[in-house]
Amino acid sequence: MEPLLVIKIGGNIIDDDEKLSSFLQDYAALEGKKILVHGGGKLATRLAGLMGIEQKLIDGRRITNAETLKIVTMVYAGYVNKQIVAKLQSLNCNAMGLCGADGDTILAHKRNHPVIDYGFVGDVDEINTELIRNLLQQNLDLVFAPITHDQQGQLLNTNADTIAQEIAKSLSGFFEVSLIYSFEKPGVLLDAEDDNTVIPAIGPAYYKTLKSKQKIFAGMIPKLDNAFAALNSGVKKVVIGQAEDIRNLVAGNSGTTINND
Amino acid sequence: MEPLLVIKIGGNIIDDDEKLSSFLQDYAALEGKKILVHGGGKLATRLAGLMGIEQKLIDGRRITNAETLKIVTMVYAGYVNKQIVAKLQSLNCNAMGLCGADGDTILAHKRNHPVIDYGFVGDVDEINTELIRNLLQQNLDLVFAPITHDQQGQLLNTNADTIAQEIAKSLSGFFEVSLIYSFEKPGVLLDAEDDNTVIPAIGPAYYKTLKSKQKIFAGMIPKLDNAFAALNSGVKKVVIGQAEDIRNLVAGNSGTTINND
Fold it and tell me: Which distant-in-sequence residues (6+ apart) come within 8 Å of B53 by Cβ?
């Protein structure tokens, strides 16, 4: 099967013009088919502040009331997405920016939580693999903003990690998918305070050991659980590392590779 | 040749939730291939006010400094575009929202005016007809936001009327294109104060007469000049009228039809 890279970049890169530029240069130079999923960054929070809309986070997830949804739609699907697309276009990379409503690429439903009302937050139901494959076949580099829809006319704010994972899983029947999560740290660390303690590879047995010895930083556990879930659904490999180092992450020379061996 | 509708809706519809909803219902029900181009509406101006960014218009065109470009990108390519796409998706219309940077669909250059510095305003150079035809072939209903790019990484604010016209012209070699401009009035009026004086059809000779008798409202002249330019470039017909009446405009039962007869 043909390889496909699904790469998620986080807010810290998006908030830093220089880092973003440098990342996009490296990204544009990556060969083969690829999909970029971006998070939001601080512009949404700043804008909410200017507009006097109070922001509330629970477990790192933004509670999305109607006004906040408007802001994240503007910032994520508008400014951030188109900014990235225009930059990639200038780097000879035929990027096309989409949110999940576009072409019904990502269908979701409003989260129905027994205790917390997350507001207009979406949980993914289905990826339109037919259209995505079709667009990739036209040599388009897809850039997804973390906004989905429910097919009833409602846009929904959706976690970018989850979108990357769902896209990677659903395309794994058609491509040899590598899923790359970039974040602030150079990989999964043995000592959260020391960037020189990157664990190069984690398989299921080692993960169990690390967890039982409480060697894994709590914030990493959902990411790793998701990584193993992706592998169990057909994704070939998952790499966690720094966006600044994307070429090496793709080549498997840095970051932490999660595998099922 | 297969028919194609290129429909431009203006800000007055976008600013009115009820009118927009009703328009989109009618739009979704229109048969055949179609492209929607939308303008901006007042949200951009409101947001600029909240953010303390002074807005300047010259001849009805927004002077687009860097901060204003950020706002129009957010509002036009983000909020307005995705809002329309999500609503159309709920109406069984497989909409996909794009700006001109996406897939390099609309290439433009920064306007170089001898006297006025319009800022980040783009004049269209080229429409990527190959990609647009390809997307239409996949039964996608394209929805364009009035933002283009220069292939050098710069997004540009671009007049929505112009985008509709350029798309219509460039696709006229492949489709039988009807270009429909919707605005506040029910058509071109003989008496600007009286909505019951719609001129049903205007050809080149009649247009000359109307202009020489100064019967055409000054604001309409660029629209009509553009309409004739579109006809001369292969567009089959141009209709000007009210978005609320889109079904009749498409059927040729209302509004003003500009023709070359």
Answer: B65, B67, B68, B71
